[in-house]
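Write out this protein's structure.
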Amino acid sequence: LWIRNAFVILSSYIFYGWWDWRFLSLIVFSSAIDFIIGLLLARTQDKFKRKALLFGTLGVNLGILGFFKYFNFFAGSLQELASLFGIHLNTTTLNIILPVGISFYTFQTMSYTIDVYFGKLKPTRDILAFFAFVSFFPQLVAGPIERASNLLGQFFERKTFNYERSVSGLRLMLWGFFKKIVIADNFGLLTDRIFDPGNELNGLTVMAGAVFFALQIYADFSGYSDIAIGIARMLGFVLMTNFRTPYFALSFGDFWKRWHISLSTWFRDYVYIPLGGNKKGDSRMYINLMITFLLSGLWHGASYNFLIWGGLYGILLIAEKMLKPERIRYIYPVFVIVCVVLLWIPFRAVDFSHLWEYTHSLFHFAGWEWSQLSGIIYGFTLNRFIATGIIFIFFMFIEMKLRNSDFDTWISAKPKFFRMILYYSILIIIMLAGNFTVKPDFIYFQF
């Protein structure tokens, strides 16, 4: 087992270091400090010492994350705040590169230490297993954010080749590549054309851009998750489901049970519930919800855009708790999906000035013409746009079938003839309609 785990660590570090080897020191340091703190927590029952160890490791992890991700944001915000009172500050900003995946593996190591502190998990003494758990390459840079209670123990199990498991992983990878190369990268090109700085925006184009970006970000991120889960499954590891067709959600609460599940459950378990959850009255619950979603917005990036995004979701969830509009069965889900799509605009905006421009344009319909949108679309080539529309219908049909399942579970229950037709159809669509001209980046790598 130790040879296997050592090979996983080596492979994962080569994978991560290929981007920038200098940042390997961060993941090694983060792994080492939480491994050591876990062992120290097991050696003492003194409440003061245990709290000191916990807050010490949280401070170090969040300090590293804060420096690389938020230093310039807070420095600039402090300068702007001081200027409101007529005070001029010469704050220093740094040319800092954000390490890929730092938010993901930092939260993963933090959850381990917190679980050990609260007695939900026994600390491991196997340093290779722990380092492999933190750096496991399929989900290292964009999740799912795994808990030690699920993934760590799997590094103590012997793995053998399993045909059914390998086929299951390949199915998920196929569907993930389809979502990324065909859906995300094609609709991403349309999104880029609409939000090009040279375009004159109006309500129609902004709404179209929001719809296209909603498809892009979902297919991009869930596609990566499917690929990661599929690779892990082929290697004998089970990762948690990260998406469950979120655009078929019936409420905002339902949406967050389906979107980026590993992050939403992390904030639920380590922020919302420790704050009191819904156990201390409605007013306290509303405050806890708002704090949780503001922090969730800040997790996504050092920008007011993300704080606004998180705050708006907090408001919508609080309103949902207060008014209980889910009873409007057929109208409310439509309202939910419209809001979800429009709330992707802060994600697409580069900064607050862009967000303001997009928001202002959203309510401006005077003088708009179809030619403004069609010009952007036709630049994509009409035939390709029509083909993309047909593929979109195909995609949404399968998504509808997966509402309470996943691609592997759904397709494995079908007759062999049906499965073969669908497999080859997806492969042909990827080869013919896949966008191979763009740089193969994933949106959530930047978070």
